[in-house]
């Protein structure tokens, strides 16, 4: 109800229409006052319409935009350094000097190369004269003097060009030292400003304990708070509640607007707090409250620990992994394909599992009973000799009957285990697809043929706006949660490591 009221409020804010269309995270917190009354607070992440103070929404934990505050003053100082750097880098005298240095180096290389070729030709001519006739002492002495003179001339020419280049390099390096000094000052002042800023974010918890961001993130692996820490909706909401002595009851964050280019967000959908930026803060701020178990950490109920063996021979087997089961052991003590196969084949001398499926994905997995077979099968996967087919149900209608999705992927460092599309840091990820059926004008049954095997590749290629823009049903990371993830590895084709025969295995999905 509270979230719907906030969303209704947003639809009426015509002045923010363009910015909201680009997408932003909003949050709602239900609170209880000391008198037992309930109400709600609303917040937005970061800055909205160039400001962080707006009626209807809670204020920031620290207002870094206040004109006379240290942040804006030092930010202007750093901006001044940036202007000085740009002025030096774009100075015509520096550009002319750099160009002259480049021309001089090129001229030196060309002239010295020609002179060296002439030396070689003269040497060849002298050797030819010695071959043609026997030289007397005077003629031999003349050839030696000629060689010495030409070498000395080359050395003088070389020293002359080196001196000219050194002079220009010295003048150029003077400019570069000034630029480098400014960049070093900028780096130092920026780091100091970030440190001071993070120290201003004093985050409360329900017990009334106060910690700044440096103290909170000092207990994490990265030690340093990421940019924008403390400015998301959830920390703002909790901070405001604690300052007024109100008890948090329930909280939710939703995305409003278009999805960003790298991450996957759907308009109006609810999302958990990001792991890198907010999770450490919330672990502190929620202390003293009785909270439900994080739904992202709950394991799906695995129906049985008896894996169905679809194919087996003395060297390998193919099993049907149920949705919700780990492929290999994780941090928690949970059942996995590996642990069950280790019990099934106690004499196996290899790593057993040849490849992995996401925990939420069901379907065919190859199990190798010997190290030799394991190495052979892994090589087939590495060299893309194994043919795979997945079937999935998508939320939405895919218009093309078949096509290819090519979107590079990498880990989202601030929101593990989510992956994201990134043209610079992403690894190639290519998926061919074919529509099998369009259901009720709302859903699509589809076959995926991945050419690469990146983490969450099919899930992102399905959900991303630059992909199919139709998330897999039940994908709680990139779509909406359901009773399961409707993705199944239904077909494997590989060359048997021992017999050399082509093995084709099919296990149709239960959905």
TrEMBL record:
GO terms for biological process: enzyme-directed rRNA pseudouridine synthesis. The keyword Coiled coil applies. InterPro entries: PsdUridine_synth_cat_dom_sf (IPR020103), PsdUridine_synth_RluA-like_CS (IPR006224), PsdUridine_synth_RsuA/RluA (IPR006145), RluA_PseudoU_synthase (IPR050188). Residues 71-185 form a coiled coil. Keywords: Coiled coil. PROSITE patterns: PSI_RLU. One of its GO terms (molecular function) is pseudouridine synthase activity. Pfam families: PseudoU_synth_2. Residues 317-464 form the Pseudouridine synthase RsuA/RluA-like domain. This is RNA pseudouridine synthase. The lineage of its organism: Bacteria, Pseudomonadati, Bacteroidota, Bacteroidia, Bacteroidales.
